[in-house]
Amino acid sequence: MSDRKLSGEVFYPSKEVLDRTQVQCESIYQSAEKDSLSFWENEANKLHWFRKWDKVLDDSKKPFFKWFINGKTNIAYNCLDVHCETYRRNKVALVWEGENGDFRSLSYFALRRETCRFANVLRSLGVKKGDRVTIYMGRVPEIVTAMLACARIGAIHSVVYGGFSVESLHERLEDSQSKVLIVADGAYQRGKIVELKKIADEALQRAATVESVLVIKRTGHEINMEFGRDFWYHDLMSSPIAGNSCDIEIMDSEDPLYLLYTSGTTGKPKAIMHTHGGYMVGTYSTTKYVFDLSDEDRFWCAADPGWVTGHSYIVYGPLLNGATCFMYEGAPNFPNPGRWWSMIEKYGINILYAAPTAIRGFMRYGDAWVKRYNLSSLRLLGSVGEPINPEAWRWYHKVVGGERCPIMDTWWQTETGVVMISPLPCTPLKPGSGTKPFPGIQVDILDEKGMRTDDDEEGYLVIKNPWPSMLRTIWNDPERYIQQYWSRFPGMYLTGDSARRDVDGYYWIIGRVDDVIKVSGYRLGTAEIESALVSHQAVAEAAAIGLPHSVKGHAIHCYVLLKAGFEKSDKLIEELRQHVGHEVGPIAKPESIEIVDSLPKTRSGKIMRRVLKAKALGIDPGNLSTLEE
Ligand code: WTA
Predict the structure, then answer these.
(1) Burial class (CB in 10 A: 0-12, 13-18, 19+), 614
(2) DSSP state, residue 501
(3) Burial classification of residue 548, based on how many CB atoms lie within 10 Å of its CB (0-12 exposed, 13-18 middle, 19 or more buried)
(4) How far is the centre of ligand 1, averaged over its atoms, from the C-alpha of 120 (Å)?
(5) By alpha-carbon position, which residue is closest to atom 8 of ligand 1?
(6) 498 lines ligand 1 (CB under 6 A)
(7) Ligand 1: centre distance to CA 384 (Å)
(8) Cβ of 309 below 6 Å from ligand 1
(9) Does 272 contact ligand 1 (Cβ within 6 A)?
(10) CB 412 near ligand 1, within 6 Å
């Protein structure tokens, strides 16, 4: 870092932080800048490979990049077995608290055993290398072992967030052609039961490929079990099928590890594909450097394993580093707004990684709830999922972090697999800025013509060079992969975000420039919400937009054109909201639905959401030359 004084509001790292950190920031940046391939290769060398690679990067078929060519490894082996050979064997890997106060903790040894048993159960259901397995449950330890069990035997997991509902699950089961569904009977959320198995039953009526359903008992309430298709997990786990050891599948670096569906510009959610080798290297090194993780730390990533943040920073990154992770099942403010802080005190959490929407939510309750607890164990904080407004940043820093914890505002995406723009512990911080690209990553901001923007000028955020944990393709749709990410500015990865860079070279993310809406940090597409609306018998056409919201960041607002014969009423509007909740999931329920007589369209019939948005915000809609009427 240069000693030059930075502009604006700056928080310089304290002496305590600099003295303590194990991250050699300067030399990491320097070595990555000098030669990013050697930087990644050096990181890869810190992990276990059954066979080392012949070459780090193959870019001969770009944008279909390949990493660690002919390397053989297994990410689950690196997460568990490697540690079981060391003093970490008896170290706690996972500490878990249920919303109802249930508690579990698993050592690395125990986590490996449970994973092996689970993997044997999956094999007994006929799951083989390359098969897809969908996982649909709440935040319980079995979601972690389910993912690792798949990885161990080379099956490709596809986790569907437990807050999604029938149609979202159906689409993902169908597109991935999953052979097995792992589901919980239910999940606890705010003291109520989310009927996961019931939703799955409905989704399964629409999806044909699933042969077996493995049901994990969490809530223990009455559910339907279909003979011959549905199996209780605990029955199989306690049967001789589930031995304590399980042969590891040796995977090629480029073999798929998982699919994770995410919303894009148009159409259905698409399956982002990540691999064993490159993703492993990326999650391992970003976790280590960004969170300055050391052996004695207890790390809490408060995301859900159903989203990429949970994949990379609850499961893979921390376990690759041999850390102790904490996971909490339920709602942040249940039974009261002190819940999170009570658990930080109780479990001695050192690192908290959360979304701005949660921070803003807690801010509303005032400082007293936080101050009631001793949070002195915290030494580093993280933010992810959406821009953090400076006010929330300052509150997080002062009230939660006691002014001693640096905040790592990490920008990244499902597609990037890992953090791309973020401070390291030694970086001077500016509230609201993710600061600089991670070592080895080159980003830029371009204008409409593809020219680099000036300082402080907004433009398209792009990534200029490949990185190991990048998505490899969109499952079943390589054309769309090229089209969506690599076509707007040839040779560059288009992020879909707009951003600006200040005079100090710090990056400030502004938000999505496409039809993606980030609601409370959750990524949704206008298309999913609109197609759920038009699947209702009363709806002819629908448009969804995101408008700013003080806690959620953005909220969904919809405009609906009714079919002839249907009358506008409050009852119908509520019915439509519920319908979206039932089809997509409660997180997608629109904040408002307005029944309209027409929608602004281009002459070719595309809905101009930008016009609706401008109208709702009372701002100039810009160029209207393509508007039909
Ligand atoms: C947004 C989540 C500002 C951004 C990891 C991105 C952020 C999208 C930040 C990806 C951040 C994520 N500051 N915006 N620190 N982190 N975003 O795929 O719009 O669920 O494109 O991945 O979240 O969302 P996704």
Answers:
(1) middle
(2) E
(3) exposed
(4) 36
(5) 413
(6) no
(7) 7
(8) yes
(9) no
(10) yes
Atom of ligand 1 nearest to the CA of 511: 19
Helix, strand, or coil here: 212? strand
Q: In angstroms, what is the C-alpha Rg of the chain? A: 24
Distance 414 CA to ligand 1 centre (A): 8
Dist CA 454 CA 326 (whole Å): 43
pLDDT tens-digit readout, 130-180: 999 999 999 999 999 999 999 999 999 999 999 999 999 999 999 999 999
The tokens 């019915």 sit on which residue? Answer: 575
Asked if 211 and 180 count as a contact pair (C-beta separation under 8 A), the reply is yes
Give the residue whose CA is nearest to atom 15 of ligand 1. 411
- Does residue 304 line the site of ligand 1, with CB under 6 A? no
Q: Residue type for 568, please?
A: K
The sign of the dihedral angle between the CA atoms of 119, 120, 124, 126 is positive
Per the structure block, which two tokens stand in for 167? 């149609």
- The answer to whether 174 and 209 are in contact (CB under 8 A) is yes
Q: What is the pLDDT of residue 1?
A: 47
Spacing, Cα 423 to ligand 1 middle (Å)? 15
Only one residue has tokens 């999956």, namely 122
Give the Cα separation of 254 and 277 in Å (integer): 6
Nearest CA to ligand 1 atom 14: 386
Beta strands in 403-464 (DSSP E): 407-410, 443-446, 459-463
pLDDT in tens, 43-72: 999 999 999 999 999 999 999 999 999 999
The residue whose C-alpha atom lies closest to atom 6 belonging to ligand 1 is 413
**Joined tokens for residue 466:** 């490949």
Across 273-287, 419-433, 596-610, least confident range: 596-610
Please indicate whether residue 524, judged by its CB atom, sits closer than 6 Å to ligand 1: no
Q: What's the 494 CA to ligand 1 centre distance in angstroms?
A: 13
In ligand 1, the atom with minimum distance to the C-alpha of 523 is 20
The tally of CA atoms less than 13 A away on the side-chain side of residue 474 is 19
CA distance 96 to 102: 8
Instruction: Tell me the CA distances in angstroms from 76 to 146, 397, 524, one per residue in order.
Output: 11, 35, 30
Beta bridge partners of 50: none
**Count of beta carbons in the 10 Å neighbourhood of residue 348:** 17
Distance 419 CA to ligand 1 centre (A): 10
Residue 259: which H helix or E strand, with range?
Answer: strand 256-262
Ligand 1 midpoint to CA 511 (Å): 8
Tell which one of 311, 313, 384 to mutate to probe ligand 1, the residue whose CB is within 8 A of the most ligand atoms: 384
- Read off the pLDDT of each residue in 586-601 and give the average, rounded to a whole number: 95
pLDDT (tens digit per residue) in 324-349: 999 999 999 999 999 999 999 999 99
Give the residue carrying structure tokens 């039809």. Answer: 515
d(CA 583, CA 591): 16
What is the rounded distance in angstroms from the CA atom of residue 161 to the CA atom of residue 146? 14
Spatial neighbors of 392 by CB under 8 A, at least 6 apart, are 356, 359, 360, 363
Can you tell me the distance from the alpha carbon of 614 to that of 596, in angstroms, rounded to the nearest whole number?
16
The H-or-E segment that residue 512 falls in is strand 507-512
